[in-house]
Every structure is written in structure tokens, then in C-alpha cells.
């Protein structure tokens, strides 16, 4: 099946620094990728939809200047958490939908656990 | 709007027990339905799917049937194993402006005891 790779799988950073998380579709092209945040023992919260070659679409309540999303190619989207603070600590997951599919099936990355000290 | 409701967990079962995790949905039109599984510390993996009414999705001994009349997509397995311990998410995907939008249920945590 289609493979989505996320990197890094975990990261610890100091408060005030920025962290970049990459999401790559390894064997398919993805015009659309999604970024989620998951708190412990909770469901996924959609943060934004990343569209190749255009601006991301953010969900209500998600700060676009805080969570910068760039989808520069058909196989790569990045999420940058700017000026991170402890409350940004979370599990971030990306997913991708292969271009040309119409079933809505998503392929997920392994997740990236961010801890801000 | 579209929504997914699944039974609250955690669900604790002994090995070889029968599993049912209920999932109902609300949607306009004809969504596709999915079950995803998340093992500890990992992302989600597609477990099974059904794209139209009366379709049965199956994988690794798990099954779910798309029931339009009851708007349900319950997950079942006849004999669970310890390795099935994970969080299970029911989801629907429906056409939305600019593409598909996926709605997830809250997730149901399953513990299987040896």
C-alpha cells in the first residue's frame, strides 16, 4: 500500500524555538495532505489541509502564524511550529490522499511527538 | 453537518472473545466509511473500508458492514488476540468543497488480556 513517512518521530526543544516536521508520500503523489494534532487518549483534531502549490486551509481556532504549513511538492508537506511553548507539546500526525483517488481513503504518517520544555 | 459517533472505551476483553465496537454516522449524500487502527506511539493505519451501502469491509479477521438504513458501520471480530490491543477510529469521508473531508470518531481503546 501507499506509504507516508513523517520525520522526526520525536523531538524535544526549548521554549521559544521553532520545530519543523516533514511529511512525505514515498510512492505516490499527493495533491492534498492533512495535519492533525492528537492529545493523549483523544481523537485526532484536524489542524489544516495542505494543498500543493497553494496556501493551506486552516481549521477554525488554529493559528496560521503559529503553525506554518508548506506544501512545496507533490510528495512533501512541512509543518513548522513557530516559537514553541509547552502547550504546543503534542502528537502531530499527517495524512495524504493519493492524487486521482475518489474514495476518501487516507494514508497516515507515523506521527511526530513534540515535547517543548 | 457530518458526524461520527462510536462507543466509548476502554473495552477490555479476554483473548479469543468476540469484539463489537459500535459506530454510527450522520451524513448527507453517500459517504465512504472507514475503520482505522492506532497502535501505541504510532500513526493510524487503515483497517478496512466500505464505499457504498451493503458493502462489507474485512481485513485481519475484522469485519464491518455499511448499513445505510441504520447509518451504522459496526466493527466486529470473532476472536481477538492480545496483539489487537489498540485504539480504533471509525471515520467517514464525504465530498466537500475542494475535495473530501474526513470526520473521525472519538476512538475506542481496546485492551485484550491473555
Task: Give an account of the 3D structure.
The complex is a heterodimer of chains A (117) and B (114). Chain A is mainly beta. Chain A has strands spanning 4-7, 10-13, 19-25, 32-38, 44-51, 57-58, 67-73, 76-81, 90-97, 107-108, 112-116. In chain A, the strands form 2 sheets. In chain A, strands 2, 4, 5, 6, 9, 10 and 11 form a 7-stranded mixed sheet that branches. In chain A, strands 1-3-8-7 form a 4-stranded antiparallel sheet, with no helix packed on it. In chain A, strand 5 (44-51) and strand 6 form a beta hairpin. With 114 residues, chain B is mostly beta strands. Chain B is built from no helices and 12 strands. Chain B has strands at residues 3-6, 11-14, 19-21, 23-26, 32-38, 44-50, 56-59, 62-65, 75-77, 86-96, 99-104, 108-113. In chain B, the strands form 3 sheets. In chain B, strands 2, 5, 6, 10, 11 and 12 form a 6-stranded mixed sheet that branches. The mean pLDDT of chain B is 92. The A-B interface holds A 1, 4, 6, 32, 34, 41-44, 46, 49, 51, 57, 93, 95, 97, 102-111, 113 and B 31-32, 34, 36, 41-46, 49, 51, 89, 92-94, 98-100, 102, 104-107, 109.
Helix and strand arrangement:
The complex is a heterodimer of chains A (117) and B (114).
Chain A: E1 4-7, E2 10-13, E3 19-25, E4 32-38, E5 44-51, E6 57-58, E7 67-73, E8 76-81, E9 90-97, E10 107-108, E11 112-116
Parallel strand pairs in A: 2-11
Antiparallel strand pairs in A: 1-3, 3-8, 4-5, 4-9, 5-6, 7-8, 9-10, 9-11
Chain B: E1 3-6, E2 11-14, E3 19-21, E4 23-26, E5 32-38, E6 44-50, E7 56-59, E8 62-65, E9 75-77, E10 86-96, E11 99-104, E12 108-113
Parallel strand pairs in B: 2-12
Antiparallel strand pairs in B: 1-4, 3-9, 5-6, 5-10, 7-8, 8-9, 10-11, 10-12
Amino acid at each position: 500500500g501507499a506509504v507516508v513517512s513523517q520525520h522526526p518521530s520525536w523531538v524535544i526543544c526549548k521554549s521559544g524555538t521553532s520545530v519543523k516536521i516533514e511529511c512525505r508520500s514515498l510512492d505516490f503523489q499527493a495533491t492534498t495532505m492533512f495535519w492533525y494534532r492528537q492529545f493523549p487518549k483523544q481523537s485526532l483534531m484536524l489542524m489544516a489541509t495542505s494543498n500543493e502549490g497553494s496556501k493551506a486551509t486552516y481549521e477554525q481556532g488554529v493559528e496560521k502564524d503559529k503553525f506554518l504549513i508548506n506544501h512545496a511538492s507533490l510528495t512533501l508537506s512541512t509543518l513548522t511550529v513557530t516559537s514553541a511553548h509547552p502547550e504546543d507539546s503534542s502528537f502531530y500526525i499527517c495524512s495524504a490522499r493519493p492524487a486521482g483517488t475518489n474514495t476518501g481513503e487516507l494514508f497516515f504518517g507515523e506521527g511526530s511527538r513534540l515535547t517543548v520544555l | 453537518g457530518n458526524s461520527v459517533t462510536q462507543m466509548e472505551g476502554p473495552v477490555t476483553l479476554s483473548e479469543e472473545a468476540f469484539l463489537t465496537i459500535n459506530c454510527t454516522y450522520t451524513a448527507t449524500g453517500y459517504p465512504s466509511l472507514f475503520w482505522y487502527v492506532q497502535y501505541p506511539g504510532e500513526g493510524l493505519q487503515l483497517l478496512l473500508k466500505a464505499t457504498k451501502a451493503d458493502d462489507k469491509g474485512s481485513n485481519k479477521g475484522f469485519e464491518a458492514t455499511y448499513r445505510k438504513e441504520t447509518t451504522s458501520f459496526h466493527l466486529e471480530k470473532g476472536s481477538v488476540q492480545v496483539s489487537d490491543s489498540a485504539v480504533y477510529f471509525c471515520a467517514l469521508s464525504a465530498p466537500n468543497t475542494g475535495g473530501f473531508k474526513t470526520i473521525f470518531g472519538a476512538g475506542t481503546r481496546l485492551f485484550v488480556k491473555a
